Amino acid sequence: MSIQFGETIPTLRMFDIAKADEFYIGFLGFKVDWDARFAPDLPLFRQISRGSLKLHLSEHHGDACPGAHVRVMMTGIEALHAELSGKKYKYYRPSLEKTPWGTLECILADPFGNRIRFCQPA
Hints:
This protein is of the alpha/beta class. 17% of the residues lie in helices and 34% in strands. It has one domain (11-121): 2,3-Dihydroxybiphenyl 1,2-Dioxygenase, domain 1, CATH 3.10.180. The strands form two sheets. It has a four-stranded mixed sheet, covered by helices on one side. The radius of gyration is 15 Å and the shape is globular.
């Protein structure tokens, strides 16, 4: 049997569900797949997705550190950039950068200091 790896789903720390929803659902266009709590007054653990990209967002202290950096390889980055730019999100104006290592990239920071680097071979 050969070694094979499946999908990777990063966990990002969040502190405010309303701010997370505004950024991830309202701005980036993700949808909520499911929410999990051990009790109504305990922290939220959530899976969101957009197409085949899945992220876990967690209010749990030990799950992740704020300030993570996730690199997402994709196609259609210019369309994503145009979509996000057209939303006029008041906290972020994304840019598109051609890198010396041959990619087109759009780097976004969420309200909790986590960065998502969307990348496409140029």
